[in-house]
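Quick start: what a row looks like.
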Amino acid sequence: MAIEKVREHLKKWNVQDKILEFPVSSATVELAAKALGCEPERIAKTMSFLLDENCILIVTAGDTKIDNGKYKARFGKKAKMVSAEQLVPLIGHEAGGVCPFGIREGVRVYLDESLKRFQTVFPACGSSNSAIELTIEELETYSGFEGWVDVCKQV
């Protein structure tokens, strides 16, 4: 299971026990916010894209969506999302549990500027009923991110 990969990944920092598992789905921003009892914008949603022959993940605030113009300006290509069928083979997680932890080698992670307004955020942990509360600094460290990007707009 992908959540076990995430647990193993987070063991490097001894935070695997901070993973929260819910008796209900947290597969969408709205469901995760409800399960956690927090504002939807604090859900750190991980979006997956095909970029040339590679996959990239962009972690964004829950109240944003990709701005196609900004994405193209940053990455030089039109945004093309990874399909649900491609998620497990290319990234290692299923829809609803995609996160920047325990992913396949070669998948690059970026954090969107929209996250910087929060002290803590809640990314998923590899399953459709899990999350972890992290500071932005912890998210940077645990995700092994390549850098900050500004590719979103608020909805």
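That is the whole record. The mean pLDDT is 96. Helices lie at 2-10, 29-36, 68-75, 84-90, 136-143.
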